[in-house]
Amino acid sequence: MKKKMVSTIGILGLCTSLAFPVYAADMVKQETHHHEYSISGFISHGELQKKLQQLEKTSNGVVQVEVVGQSHKGLDIYTAKVGTGDKVILLQSEIHGNEKTGTVALLNLLKTLSTNSKEAKKIREEVTIVFMPMMNPDASEADKRRNSMTWDEAVRDFPQLASAKPSWNYLDRGISQSYNYGENPGFDVNRDFNPNLNYVPEAQDFPGASNKPGWFITPESQTSRDVYKALKEEYGNVDVFVDLHHQGIYYVDGTSDEVTLSLSAQFVPDPNTPEGAKYAQYADNYNYDFSRQLNVAAYNELQSYGNSKFKNISLYSQGLDLPGTALGSYALNGSGTVLFEVKGQTQTMGQKQKGQLVKSVERGLEAIIKGVADGSVETLNPEDYEKIPLTSNRPS
């Protein structure tokens, strides 16, 4: 396994298998979660490290693992790459540390795609898939939404922010989702992205707002951004970006069925419309129809399982303007984008229904990957996206 900080070039070259570095968690004080639900069935950072090492070793070179950055507390952030195709798919999990099923699903899928099966080999010939599991490890270890960085530490890293007010996505008071942020402040990393991938923080852009770009002030968002930029430089584009999340308990609109998984292709208004005019500089890159096709592929696959809870799929809130999210920023930079939001979070459900939720993510991702690999996703009608039922916050 390679251990090195990511740069904007060459992060995904040939991998040299080296011994794992000392587990960084051994050197930092770890926070613990503050709710009564067990999360022992999910994957810790140390277990992630071991599983990636094992997959790289047993795959005989098919899986290439790299350390691409470190969290604020110094925990390694990894990518694992499979495939040699020209079409690039980037899959990311646990940008919020209490949203854990995606990491399990990614490791299961990585194992499947590294086998010598005829189907796995064919997929690897057509696409390059980069997995970024548990990209916010500090939050994952403490089972919380936000990272563990203080505003003072952000100003230390960016002295030009000394006169700025703390960003709107920074929390340093009260109890949120069973976690005391007054004791351990942090940033919502998924509001720290910017469509300008070369943006440097400026004091006049703070504190910002939900409908304004973020700043790349957290090491976690910087790492994701650097991986994305390096892929674009090497391959010309990141064709697909999928971000794996959790949500609360919602219902399929018009029913009393609890949503198993919400999907979405829409995170900023289309730059080619009057509503999206402020993003006009990204208009030539933005491909909403392709994003919709990717979502339809996942939806159709999950609907194919008959009368099961895999059918309880809905559209996440639409009409959003969230350029500070990874999905919004990467969509404006030319990626087809898909949001997965499975039911519940660890502070409300622990590991309840873990198996079903993980499987729903796996099946949806498999459909997207296969559809991109064989080109069938491009034959889907993007307008079918509009037929997917919406998410409701109450049963009918």
TrEMBL record:
Residues 1-24 form the signal peptide. One of its GO terms (biological process) is proteolysis. InterPro entries: Peptidase_M14. Residues 33-372 form the Peptidase M14 domain. One of its GO terms (molecular function) is zinc ion binding. One of its GO terms (cellular component) is extracellular space. The keyword Disulfide bond does not apply. Keywords: Hydrolase, Metalloprotease, Protease, Signal, Zinc. The keyword Calcium does not apply. It comes from the Bacteria. Its cofactor is Zn(2+). Pfam families: Peptidase_M14 (PF00246). Belongs to the peptidase M14 family. This is Predicted deacylase. It comes from Psychrobacillus psychrotolerans.
